[in-house]
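User: I'm writing a short report section on ligand binding and want a predicted complex to refer to. Could you take this sequence and iron/sulfur cluster and write out the structure as tokens? A short remark afterwards would be nice.
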Amino acid sequence: MQPFTTVTGLAAPLMWANVDTDMIIPVQRLVGSTRDGLGPYGFERFRGRPDFPLDQPPFAGAPILLAGENFGCGSSREGAVWTLMGMGLRCVIAPSFGDIFHANCFQNGLLPVRLPLGMIRRIAEAMEASPGNARVTLDLGRQEVVTPWGEALPFAIDARKKQALLEGLDDIALTRQREAEILAWQARDSAARPWAWDSVAG
Amino acid sequence: MLDRGALPRKTGRVDDDRMTRTLFAKLWDPHVVADLGEGWSLLHIDRVLLHDLSGARALAEVAAAGHALARPDLVFATPDHAISTAPGRTGETFPGGAAPLAGLRQRARETGIRLFDLGQPGQGIVHVMAPELAIVLPGTTLVCGDSHTCTNGGVGALAFGIGASELSHVLATQTLMQRRPRAMRIRFEGTLPPGVTAKDMILHAIGRFGTAGGTGFAVEYAGAAVRALPLEARLTLCNLSIELGAKMGLIAPDETTYAYLAGRRFAPRGAAWDAALADWRRLPSDPDAAFDADHWIEAGDIAPQVTWGTSPEQVLPITGRIPAPASAADRAALDYMGLEAGRPIEGTKVDWVFIGSCTNSRLSDLRDAAAMLRGRRVAPHVTAWVVPGSETVKREAEAEGLDRAFLAAGFAWREPGCSLCVAANGETVPPGARSVSTSNRNFVGRQGTGARTHLASPAMAAAAALAGAITDPRRA
Ligand code: SF4
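Assistant: Sure. The structure tokens for the complex follow:
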């Protein structure tokens, strides 16, 4: 996973509610795909629409996305995160996220930040008022979003996930250190609940 | 013994109290391998499902990272998303799906996981296949790289969708790092009116609570109207939990569950069955268990539901009128759907009908739809498809003559798979066409670029096919 510490740059406003992962990347692009190369297909159904900001200067390639409620709802496809990162994004700021999308972000080093909708709207207005000049900074270590007008807004983040992002930890390697515990659990459970194991045994 | 009371309690939550635990807590707590702090647990995963869209890639990534599969005997795979459902199909009929399927076959051979391949009993939509084969059992944990894994909670399991990286983690370790969700209960009390189904119950709930109403929760569906549902209808109810924002939906197991599971391919037998039953009977939420959120819906108030917009929460009773837009999103939805606010939804002309998907493609769904036909014909301008959820559903339906009933009425009778639910296999509803679909997502472009999807029950879908328009199935 790509570590995350701080990011400073343009924040592109896409203030629609309920942006689902089908909108971010249509499933047809995922058939036989790998993790790389999805960026060009991001939001392809919306490209060229006047109300779609992400392919227009100055916001194309912005590292931060400002979003509406329930961002990333719907399908579990992690390809949605790979796509956003392939578009150059490192952080999404939204009032709320779909649960599975939120978990997928942390697996890849895309930082999901929750802020109140009113504050995100203010940042969006500041971005649009000064196109190409206004900047937003994300500081994960300090847990702060610095707005274009210089205000440092604190955000909450799970301490475990924060550390994993800062260090770019590999969850599988961490868990494999607990192999003895897992095997012990399995031995206990297969003695306590043989029906859960024997019915599918080879 | 499922209840490992000797283990230290992992969190200080109310519902962890031994005497007053929820079904959710009784599923979660015994599966905690290690407490990771701050509400995080390392959770044991008892069953893993793989499908063709991501299965081969997941197995390849695990191998490339140098890991062996932790427990190949607990992993079950079947192609569903990217395979053609045309009669007589092979793995190559949809060219885009050929490589993922070939990869899945090869990796299954190499790793020893079970693969239910095309034409074999067991092949089908993962969430139809898992309960059908009793791969998922009450009291077990199950994951799949697919958000509708919540369907499987209908048997009383903790089942949820995960992303690709989490899937690799499970395959390599048989565990998952998860933060404990909060427990919600939605009680449907009273009796469902005739002609109202589990699909209508859950669409009604989504309309009321919204697509983020269940975010962060595991949702238990309870109450007299839920206990009265057959098992397949409970799977339908749990299927749309993710459309409520909840990763997990669950229903306490009972005699209906046990009768459904008994004798199925991977169900315990003999003394093991008796031991399992003894464990399962302890699973239901204790009468005084506390929920973090608790809702009540009067089942008798629910009418057949149909969506009008591009989010499942944009839903209304069949007797309703298309609402005036309350937001820019509503206006965009009306525009995409080509609908006019203020008009009755009933009577809206329909071009396509799709009966299928992990929501509504089981034998009981096909029977509900077939019961509407009674010698009638699909309206001439309508293209109507039935895509059974699994090879077994297909064979059982054919044994009852349902295929002939559908064909005689003018429906296409196809091979099992996801098909028009997600349009990942080259099968699409044409741009601008209006479709009534028994699936679970009416998102922009979900059934094909520009396709306009109305979610509804199998009975309403069949009624729409016959009338050529959205119709109240109670009158059709
Ligand atoms: S039928 Fe639809 S919702 Fe169900 S698994 Fe297939 S694509 Fe997903």
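A remark for your report: Strands of chain A lie at 6-9, 11-14, 64-67, 91-94, 111-114, 136-139, 144-146, 152-154. Chain A touches chain B through 59 residues (CB under 8 Å).
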